[in-house]
Amino acid sequence: MTDLYAVLGHPISHSKSPQIHTLFAGQTGEDLLYRAVLVPLDGFADEVSKLIRQQGMTGMNVTVPFKEEAFQLAQQRTPRAERAGAVNTLKVLSNGTLLADNTDGAGLIRDITVNQGVSLKGKQVLVLGAGGAVRGILQPLLEQQPAAVVIANRTVSKAEALAADFADLGRISGCGFAEATPPDGSAFDVIINGTSASLAGELPPLTSSVIGPETVCYDMMYGKGLTVFNRWAREHGAARVIDGLGMLVEQAAEAFELWRGVRPDTAPVMAELRGERRR
Ligand code: ATR
Q1: Which residue of 89, 94, 187, 237 is 20 to 30 Å from 65, comparing CA positions?
Q2: Three-state secondary structure string covering the chain
Q3: pLDDT at residue 183 in the model
Q4: Which residue's CA lies nearest to atom 26 of ligand 1?
Q5: d(CA 131, ligand 1 centre) in Å
Q6: Which CATH architecture has domain 3-102?
Q7: Could you tell me if the CB of 196 is within 6 A of ligand 1?
């Protein structure tokens, strides 16, 4: 029997998840259908229950603005989901209850370390933003054992609170954008933009001294051309700029593996999406 999956969000029409999971299914020979569901802003729990009971849905991805609600709804959560406080993946267990996972951070780290070949061990890492997206990546990031992680945010208190929440996992601190300097005073090795500023075409007000000739910049956003942040990073001499398309495909692969027990090959799917973007 064909298993059913969906991504739930509001808005949802822009989502690439149906395409990505359909490509994974074709590649691995898994018998599944995956679609996008637009969920009313006040109807997440009802929709999930309806999809499971009336349509026999076996797994779901969850996107903005329902990731926290999905976390609350699930009866079981993976340790990384517990830390993230928000989830992008739900698996319907055989007894009908929900297991929640957050695969965003693992997807980001896999894209940086495996696909891009950038090691994070011993590195000075600057993370921009202190919202849900950043909370979701901190545990997998700290597991890579960077020398230090600095979280810079417009609202400084949120950066400080987030750093305090993860201080048991490594050397991590919070500050405002103007105070973002690596502990040894040089440029950062890696800068990850996790603010939603790019969505509004805005830039976090950073000093360009955070970037040096060896700095790798990663924007968790992606778009048709260079993101605003990556354009700024390139103009200020970053060694490399990378956008979040790889993270998107890797978080999907991680969810696919949780559901199906098979790890898809992400490279051809990324090539397909990048090719479409150029067309
Ligand atoms: P998400 O789920 O995408 O993380 P969020 O929890 O609303 O969304 O967090 C958005 C993040 O982007 C926050 O860090 C926010 O800064 P504040 O905590 O100060 O609100 C940041 N952000 C949004 N717009 C921004 C802008 N124009 N400049 C700088 N930071 C911005």
Answers
A1: 94
A2: CCEEEEEEECCCCCCCHHHHHHHHHHHHCCCEEEEEEECCCCCHHHHHHHHHHHHCEEEEEECCCCHHHHHHHCCEECHHHHHHCCCCEEEECCCCCEEEECCHHHHHHHHHHHHCCCCCCCCEEEEECCCHHHHHHHHHHHHCCCCEEEEECCCHHHHHHHHHHCHHHCCEEEECHHHCCCCCCCCCCEEEECCCHHHHCCCCCCCHHHCCCCCEEEECCCCCCCCHHHHHHHHCCCCEEECCHHHHHHHHHHHHHHHHCCCCCHHHHHHHHHHHHHC
A3: 65
A4: 197
A5: 6
A6: 3-Layer(aba) Sandwich (3.40)
A7: yes
Architecture of 105-245 per CATH?
3-Layer(aba) Sandwich (3.40)
Ligand 1, atom 6: closest residue by C-alpha: 131
Ligand 1 centroid from CA 170, angstroms: 23
Q: Which atom of ligand 1 is nearest to the CA of 196?
A: 12
Question: How confident is the model over 50-63, as a mean pLDDT?
Answer: 96
In the annotation, is 67 catalytic?
A: yes
What residues does each domain of the chain span? 3-102, 105-245
The response to whether residue 1 sits with its C-beta less than 6 Å from ligand 1 reads no
Q: Establish whether residue 206 lines the binding site of ligand 1, counting it when its CB lies within 6 angstroms of any ligand atom.
A: no
pLDDT value at residue 68: 96
Does the beta carbon of 197 lie inside 6 Å of ligand 1? yes
Report pLDDT digits (tens) over 164-207.
999 999 999 999 999 998 767 789 999 999 999 877 888 999 98
Q: How far is the CA of 115 from the centre of ligand 1 (A)?
A: 27
For residue range 3-36, list pLDDT tens digits in order. Answer: 999 999 999 999 999 999 999 999 999 999 999 9
Q: Which pTM does this prediction carry?
A: 0.95
